[in-house]
Amino acid sequence: MRSVSEPELRASFVNCSKGEAKRLAVPPKLSEQRWDDLDFLGWSDPAAPDRAYLVAERDGDVIGVALRSAVAQAHRPTMCTLCLTTHPGSGVCLMTARKAGPSGRQGNSVGTYICSDLDCSLYVRGVKRPPVGGRLKEALSQEEQIERTRSNVFAFLDRVAG
Question: N or C: which end of the chain has fewer CB within 10 A?
Answer without folding.
Answer: C
